[in-house]
Amino acid sequence: MGTTRLETVPEPKYWHLRNVLAEALDTEFAVGEILPNERELAARFGVARATLRQALEQLELEGRLQRRRGVGTTVAPPRVGVDVSTPRHEWPGDDQDASWNPRDCVLAPAPAAVLRLLETAPAEVHTVRRVRVTSGQTVATELIYVPAASVPELSAIDAPSGSARARSVLRELQRLGLDGQDRAVELGSARADDAKELDRLPGAPVLVVTTRYVAAGRVAAVSVATYRADTCRLTFGDSGDLEISDRPEERRAS
User: Fold this and answer.
1) What is the pTM for the complete model shown?
2) Beta bridge partners of 142
3) Residue 239: pLDDT above 70?
């Protein structure tokens, strides 16, 4: 990528730079190759570093670049297709759900945003944390919020903590008759704990899939799954219903 001065064009400068960089990624760089540092890139294109960062952030959002701790900005591989469609009558953690690995479960008061999704008064919930691994790479983290009332037979003695307790909560949840589920998808920013699990920087773009599970006419559990936006493209299959909403209360609950 030689020294280049951007043309004067009607589109925003960062977007024009994004297009120039995207073409260079296709012709001059290999997957995994490290880009020059920001100072060098800004000098080559004769732009402010703020403009350069906007262009790089846009390419990262599109999955063309990855920022890696201790490495720098690298050319990203093609996105991995991740199927997030599930039968309308399948709880999380059933026997076919082998791509998710339970990590932990705690009992604590539910966050306000979760309470709104659960449509319930303040109460304690079992919060199950899982990670999803595809092709040997962690591509998603998930928090499943299960009100204590949804799993009244759960025994704290049998599964006091850790992954065993997480499995016990999900196993008890499956005893309920599932009426159905509704799902929403939105773009978000990685929180510190999610970023660490996903090997991303805090604030990196992520795709957030929120699912509400309904049983006996009430919301019995809520799942908030956070997927890497740079390496994943979500596929829904024939059973995936995509709903578009601008209602704030339906946004990310974690």
Assistant:
1) 0.71
2) 130, 225
3) no
**Counting every residue, how long is the chain?**
254
What percent of the chain has a predicted confidence (pLDDT) above 90?
A: 28
Asked if 23 and 110 sit in the same domain, the reply is no
Q: b/e per residue, 224-240, with b = 16+ CB within 10 A?
A: bbbbbbbbbebeeeeee
* CB-side neighbour CA atoms (13 Å) of 88: 7
Both 22 and 139 in one domain: the answer is no
Q: How confident is the model at residue 131 (pLDDT cuts 50, 70, 90)?
A: very high
Q: What's the total number of domains in the chain?
A: 2
Q: Which one, of 128, 243, 145, lies nearest residue 251 by Cα?
A: 243
Nearest alpha carbon to residue 173 among 253, 94, 254, 96: 94
Tell me the CA end-to-end span of the chain in Å, nearest whole number: 42
Residue 56 pLDDT exceeds 80? yes
> Coil, strand, or helix at residue 163?
helix
**Domain range for residue 145?**
80-250
Rounded Cα gap, residues 254 and 245, in angstroms: 18
The tokens for 95 are: 């026997």
Question: How far is 173 from 154, CA to CA, in rounded Å?
Answer: 9
Show the tokens assigned to 85. Answer: 């469609």
Residue 7 inside a domain? The answer is: no
In a domain, 5, yes or no: no
Residue 65's CATH number: 1.10.10.10
What's the CATH code of the domain at 207? Answer: 3.40.1410.10
Task: Give the whole-angstrom CA distance, residue 174 versus residue 138.
Answer: 25
What is the dihedral sign for C-alpha 90, 92, 97, 99? positive
Are residues 51 and 117 located together in one domain of the fold?
A: no
